[in-house]
Amino acid sequence: MKTAISVSKEDYLKAILEAESEGQTVISATLAHWLEVSPPAVSMALRRLKRDGYVEVRADGVVRLTPKGHEAAYRTALRHHLIERMLSEMFGMPWFEVHDEAERLEHAVSPAFEALLMRKLGEKGTCPHGNAVLPESDATRKRHGVRPLADVAEGAEYTVTSLYERDEKLLRFLQQAGIEPGGTVRVVRRNYDQTVAIETAAGHFTLGPAAAEKVRVRRSSGRNGR
Ligand SMILES: [Zn+2]
Q1: Residue 139: its pLDDT value, please?
Q2: Distance 51 CA to ligand 1 centre (A)
Q3: pLDDT band at 1 (very low <50, low <70, confident <90, very high)
Q4: What is the mean pLDDT of residues 198-225?
Q5: Is 130 domain-assigned?
Q6: Do 13 and 93 belong to one domain?
Q7: How far apart are CA 187 and CA 170, in angstroms?
Q8: Could you list the residue range(s) of the whole structural domain that residue 184 is in?
Q9: How remote is the CA of residue 188 from the centroid of ligand 1, in Å?
Q10: Which of 18, 29, 212, 226 pairs as cysteine with 222 (C-beta 3.0–4.6 A)?
């Protein structure tokens, strides 16, 4: 568990924004879990954010960003996105390492350096995990033919479009199973216990539902990556 002081205001705002764009409802327990901080630390942080006009906390406990909070959160998310792309595209850092490195660096870059990155990389495009600046909701993904690996048909071949990037242990686990953005996964069998037997370039593996939920895929349109 991290100390309250190591988790900044920006970390809270970004977590709330990401949850909102994924269509999730945020309560303080969600934040405690995501940011790995204690419930009292979350309550304290939310009181401060509310006082400073960044969030509203409804009577039922639901936390929402104010326009000011949304703007601050978006800037942090964009900075994170740009740094991830810089590390990967300019320095060749492996995709399963860039998230945590970006979490550390994003608090240190100056506005001038951020502007340089923006000019070089642009706001569009996806990070090395296949995600845009803000994650899409499940409904939007579905419209684009993208669904969790946990929900797809047996026997078919899929292309990995994006990965849940908040958990570096998960990313390393997926990497060892040959799952990476742009890679191919064949679903061999869906088992009764909700595990999924898969085949990737790295071999045969079995994924539990906790991991399979966090891999987004699209049906491959044909051989030779057409
Ligand atoms: Zn990313």
Answers
A1: 84
A2: 31
A3: low
A4: 88
A5: no
A6: yes
A7: 19
A8: 138-225
A9: 28
A10: 226
